[in-house]
Design a protein that fits this description.
With about 250 residues, the chain is of the alpha+beta class. The chain has 2 domains: about 70 residues, no CATH class; about 180 residues, Aminopeptidase. It has 10 helices and 12 strands. An 8-stranded mixed sheet has the order 5-6-7-8-9-10-12-11, sandwiched between helices. It has a two-stranded parallel sheet with strand order 1-2. Helix 4 crosses helix 7. The longest helix is centred in the middle third of the chain and has 16 residues. It starts with 10 loop residues before the first helix and ends with a helix. The relative contact order is 0.10.
């Protein structure tokens, strides 16, 4: 089985998932590579779904013959930590994490002020999944020892310029464990290897020293500062823009 049979699905997971379950799934937009007739002849247990899957190791899972109501996606960062795409079933736990860390997160980011009930996190996740289905980024949860610790995602993907921006945050009790750095590194690797992008950007409030340390630690270049970028809790914040090119990242590997 060749990787180019499935445009966006990593080979290792496609083979593993198919061998273990006997169910092969190919995104609709990938059928142009293989062709629908050949797909069904080679993979009789396969099922066409509407999503164009391009993210980290992921597949669509079929429940009761209906496609697309759950996404199987898990990437281990270490023995205690993994990434998994946010689904609406995670809304309650995500809201609780935001609510518990509302003050500290809200000092630097605007979304806690707009997140006042579980339904708000459901709407956010639904929007994220829609962008994911459109090949325009997504948000994943960061899980540590089985508990959601924060979130990370691609804010957009500019396919013409072949660049993206990564955003991330953690709940108070999960700070200082290196989780965000590991998660950002994973998305950088994915950006340059699986997605073949040319540039990754990260924007951080100028006074958020702990968050700024992550792109600086990973070799990003500080490219500029946008003054009075955001008004949060009665205070204007400048935003520092960091950038990393594919060749710069590859030279560090």
């Amino acid at each position: 089985m060749e990787l180019n049979l499935v445009k966006h699905l990593p080979k290792q997971l496609f083979v593993k998932y198919g061998e273990e379950t006997g169910l092969y799934i190919v995104p609709e937009k990938s059928l142009g590579v293989l062709g629908e007739k050949d797909f069904h002849s080679q993979y009789p247990n396969g099922h066409q779904v509407e999503y164009s899957v391009f993210m980290l190791e992921c597949v669509m899972e079929i429940h009761n013959g209906i496609s697309g109501d759950r996404i199987v996606y898990k990437v281990n960062l270490d023995s205690e930590t993994h990434l998994s795409i946010l689904e609406t079933r995670h809304a309650k736990d995500l809201y609780q994490l935001i609510d518990e860390s509302r003050e500290s997160i809200g000092k630097w980011l605007s979304f806690p002020e707009k997140t006042n009930k579980v339904e708000d996190t459901e709407i956010f996740i639904e929007k994220s999944l829609k962008r994911y289905s459109e090949n325009n980024g997504y948000w994943a949860g960061i899980w540590h020892n089985g508990t959601i610790a924060g979130s990370i995602g691609f804010l957009y993907i500019d396919w013409s310029a072949r660049k993206t921006e990564i955003g991330y945050w953690l709940g108070d009790q999960f700070l200082g464990k290196g989780l965000a750095t590991k998660a950002v590194k994973q998305l950088i690797d994915h950006s340059f290897t699986e997605l073949d992008l040319r540039k990754v950007e990260i924007g951080v409030a100028s006074n958020n020293i702990k968050s700024r340390a992550i792109p600086e630690r990973l070799g990003f270049t500080q490219e500029g500062t946008i003054r009075n970028y955001e008004f949060l809790q009665g205070e204007y914040h400048d935003r520092v823009i960091y950038g990393l090119l594919k060749e710069e990242w590859n030279s560090k590997i």
